[in-house]
């Protein structure tokens, strides 16, 4: 029998009415003759509420306890969804991540899936039941403690289950009708992308498109799983994220697939670094030892005669204070003058496999941003992406300008935001 894995995000299970609606969708698939496995997120914003609660009792809660707390959100929704399905006359069994066999590394808050051993899920399916799995969580192979996969991790749970169960498809239900050429919350005329390659989706997700969890896309790529992103609030066709998007005959793929943005990064500038061999290495070794993820790096040419240079880089805002503390410790040894910190920045990225074979994309991108009166602070590129850092309050203008420049605007507004905040 064909097997489908479905994922429902927080806004799709936000309250009792939403849960009943989702139960109906799940039962419809079952009635259509499929085996169904469902990964669910916590209801609405309850993960954020749990985080707030934790901060009120302890400013820096230990990772083990925080994961225990946060995973309870998904346990609530999995049981309620199972009950709602039962109420429709179908059997459903809920499982925690650990019960579903999601085995992870032991890094609390950002554990990686090592293996999935879904014996109990198979048993449930063999008994004719629908399996409901708590998303975003697993159990550490070493410590046996409960772990979480990072914010938005339920997408990854779904794809990992699809891979382990050899599912025919993985459907990710969210609060917009698929992947759009830009976040419809910023660009109302954004267009739905019917099909996008996994490679481009990976760049979009890495550049802040919150529609899919980055690790979920990586996982799907590794195991060749097609993902169907759809809204749980409509019957619209959504977006297929595919290992390869065939160029339909006589029709060229657009040069640019979309414009992504990210406001979650900050910029640190190390001022007055002596321009000598090994200084950059010392700085970035220190940051690596503090387990800080660096994104863009720019080294400014030293002013004539000073023999000093400035090095700027971006990193997640959440790592900002740790990075500053680590760098202060080596200030004397490296001999730099000072540190500047700015978390009021944003990153705007243009993504498209077509830019490989089209010259001039960069110039057009920068022209459009200049046309919007926005100053570019940093630049980085990959083969299929160009990213710039701009002031945070100018992100919307830059996204809109690039979107228009590459003719991505739809003639009429087709994007509907049904709820939620972008997850
Ligand atoms: N509930 C978790 C979060 O809000 C996981 C998820 O939604 O995928 O990040
Ligand atoms: Mg959520």
Description:
By secondary structure, the protein is α/β, with parallel strands linked by helices. It has a domain at 3-174: Carbamate kinase, CATH 3.40.1160.10. Helices cover 33% and strands 25% of the residues. The protein is built from twelve helices and 20 strands. The chain has helices spanning 16-31, 46-57, 63-87, 119-126, 154-164, 198-206, 214-223, 279-289, 320-329, 331-334, 361-371, 395-405, and strands at 3-8, 35-40, 92-95, 102-104, 113-116, 130-134, 137-140, 146-148, 169-174, 195-197, 227-231, 239-242, 258-262, 265-274, 297-299, 308-316, 338-342, 345-351, 378-382, 385-391. α1 (16-31) packs across α3, α5 runs parallel beside α7 and α6 packs antiparallel against α7 (214-223). The structure holds aspartic acid and magnesium ion. Residues 9-10, 41-42, 47, 73, 135-136, 151-154, 423 line the site of aspartic acid (ASP).
Précis, in short:
This protein has helices at 16-31, 46-57, 63-87, 119-126, 154-164, 198-206, 214-223, 279-289, 320-329, 331-334, 361-371, 395-405, and strands at residues 3-8, 35-40, 92-95, 102-104, 113-116, 130-134, 137-140, 146-148, 169-174, 195-197, 227-231, 239-242, 258-262, 265-274, 297-299, 308-316, 338-342, 345-351, 378-382, 385-391.
- Biggest β-sheet: strands ordered side by side in the sheet: 3-6-2-1-9-11-12-10
| Major sheet size, sense and barrel closure | 8 strands, mixed
**Unreliable spans:** none
* Count of DSSP-assigned helices: 12
Mean pLDDT: 93
What is the strand content? 15-25%
**Radius of gyration in whole Å, from Cα?**
23 Å
Named once each, the bound ligands are:
aspartic acid, magnesium ion
Level-2 CATH architecture of the domain at 3-174: 3-Layer(aba) Sandwich
Total beta strands:
20
> By CATH's scheme, which homologous superfamily of the domain at 3-174 applies?
Acetylglutamate kinase-like
Structural class based on helices, strands and sheet pairing: alpha/beta
The CATH topology of the domain at 3-174, please? Carbamate kinase
Which CATH class of the domain at 3-174 is shown?
Answer: Alpha Beta
Shape: globular
């Amino acid at each position: 029998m064909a097997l489908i894995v479905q994922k429902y995000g927080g806004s799709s299970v936000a309250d009792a009415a939403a849960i009943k609606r989702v139960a109906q969708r799940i039962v419809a698939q079952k009635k259509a003759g499929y085996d169904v496995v469902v990964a669910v997120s916590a209801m609405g914003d309850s993960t954020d509420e749990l985080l707030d609660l934790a901060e009120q009792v302890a400013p820096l809660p230990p990772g083990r306890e925080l994961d225990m707390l946060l995973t309870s959100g998904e346990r609530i929704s999995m049981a309620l969804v199972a009950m709602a399905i039962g109420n429709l006359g179908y059997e459903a069994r809920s499982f925690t991540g650990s019960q579903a066999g999601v085995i992870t590394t032991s890094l609390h808050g950002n554990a990686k899936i090592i293996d999935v051993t879904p014996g109990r899920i198979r048993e449930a399916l063999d008994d004719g039941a629908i399996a409901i799995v708590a998303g975003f969580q697993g159990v550490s192979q070493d410590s046996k403690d409960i772990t979480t996969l990072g914010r938005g991790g339920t997408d990854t749970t779904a794809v990992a289950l699809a891979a382990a169960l050899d599912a025919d498809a993985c459907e990710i239900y969210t609060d917009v009708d698929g992947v759009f050429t830009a976040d419809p919350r910023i660009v109302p005329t954004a267009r739905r992308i019917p099909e996008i390659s996994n490679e481009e989706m990976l760049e979009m997700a890495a550049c802040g498109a919150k529609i899919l969890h980055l690790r979920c896309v990586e996982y799907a790529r590794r195991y060749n799983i097609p993902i169907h992103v759809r809204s749980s609030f409509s019957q619209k066709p959504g977006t297929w994220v595919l290992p390869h998007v065939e160029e339909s005959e006589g029709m060229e793929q657009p040069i640019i697939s979309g414009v992504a943005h990210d406001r979650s990064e900050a910029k640190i500038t190390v001022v007055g670094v002596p321009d000598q061999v090994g200084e950059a290495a010392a700085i970035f070794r220190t940051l690596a030892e503090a387990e800080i993820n660096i994104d863009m790096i720019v080294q400014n040419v030293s002013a004539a005669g000073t023999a000093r240079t400035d090095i700027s880089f971006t990193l997640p805002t959440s790592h900002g204070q740790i990075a500053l503390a680590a760098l202060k410790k080596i200030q004397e040894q490296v001999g730099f003058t000072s540190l500047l910190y700015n978390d009021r920045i944003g990153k705007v990225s243009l993504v498209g496999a077509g830019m490989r074979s089209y010259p001039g994309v960069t110039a057009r991108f920068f022209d459009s941003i200049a046309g919007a009166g926005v100053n570019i602070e940093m630049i980085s590129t990959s083969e299929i992406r160009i990213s710039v850092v701009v002031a945070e309050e100018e992100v919307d203008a830059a996204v809109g300008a690039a979107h228009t420049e590459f003719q991505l605007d739809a003639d009429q507004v087709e994007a509907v935001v049904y709820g939620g905040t972008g997850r």
